[in-house]
Known about the structure:
This protein has helices spanning 2-8, 22-31, 43-49, 64-74, and strands at 16-19, 34-38, 57-61. By secondary structure, it is of the alpha/beta class. β2, α3 (43-49) and β3 (57-61) form a beta-alpha-beta unit.
Amino acid sequence: MRQAQERFAIDLTRSFVVGDKAADVGLASAVGARGILVRTGYGEAELARHDGRMPGASHVAADLMAATSWILAEAGHPKDEA
């Protein structure tokens, strides 16, 4: 992650990590990004192991499409045209 950050000048504070494991959310926290857990794949089992919550996650989404919609909303999209 750090190599990509340096090579492409990525602002990790404005970045998101989407995954289905607690380790994915942990990676986000470790680098200063926002972590999103998806319930698909291993996500439901991860939630069950943590009593229905994911510590450190900024959001828990039903699937990748829902995660994408949340990210876009957080970024202010769609922007209202005046």
